[in-house]
Amino acid sequence: MLKAGVLGAGHLGKIHLRLLKQSEKYQLVGFYDADIENGKRVAEEFGYHLFNTVDELIDAVDMVDIVTPTLSHYECAKKAIAKGKHIFIEKPITNTVEEAEHIRELLAEHGLRGQVGHVERFNPAYLAVKSEIKLPMFIETHRLSEFNPRGTDVPVVLDLMIHDIDIILSIVKSKIKNISASGVAVISDTPDIANARLEFENGCVANLTASRISLKKMRKARFFQKDAYISVDFLTKKCEVVKMKDAPEHPGDFDMVLQNAEGVRKQIYFDNPKVENNNSILDELEAFAHAITTNTTPVVTLHDGTEALRVATKIIECF
């Protein structure tokens, strides 16, 4: 079992602590939190060992799970890598692209593994249809959230939209040729609602919308490709696959058949795969443990996290 320690015991940090504690791939050694009073409360309530300093925690583990505010990711990661530790780092990877690239360089120099917490890659609804998404030409995503002061220290693009940016970049194997976007700050000092349009060299277009001042929650993505429409609801963990094929010469009474102006007839049918229930955060943490122990590439590499941050930064620069 890998010895794991968590930096940061906020909302998400406490979830990571609980899951690492129950994981069969890790031995949770303890945690550190810069807010000493919060750290003491968490230690007393759950019984986790509280380290006095970041360095003490890093020295005691094999893997450092960085769940601190984004502004501190860079320094935490540098310290862990310098001491020869693998790092799991929550999204966004760092505050700037330059910091992310430096972390990647350090990790490679030390021969260590790193993974970024883009948890939607492990969402069961997405996993169920991932193999069906082939060369999409139009993608539309909506990620809406009710207002929560937590996370408003960064623009909504880095808080919410970056999830969908990562998913899209992992699917569309083409360079971005143009980005246009708009964002509005309503309650926070940074944009609370944003829309971005990504145009890829292969012709694919992605339209992304994110808001943290919505009256309802929504986390949906729709993929349109030749002869297929695929939708993923990341929130309800449901998916839908609608396909078209050449219509039979003699369709059945209940077959859905469309005919275009040229007389081409297509049959519409539904092919919805089974969604396996899982805990996405536990799965991403254990997938990282597998990458470390087998010396293989993590599912979400630091390169992936850097590229998602790079696109997010370019979107913000459009505002």
Automatic annotation (TrEMBL):
Pfam families: GFO_IDH_MocA (PF01408), GFO_IDH_MocA_C3 (PF22725). Residues 155-216 form the GFO/IDH/MocA-like oxidoreductase domain. Residues 3-118 form the Gfo/Idh/MocA-like oxidoreductase N-terminal domain. It comes from the Bacteria. InterPro entries: Gfo/Idh/MocA-like_OxRdtase_N, Gfo/Idh/MocA_Oxidoreductases, GFO_IDH_MocA-like_dom, NAD(P)-bd_dom_sf. This is Gfo/Idh/MocA family oxidoreductase. It comes from Gaetbulibacter aestuarii.
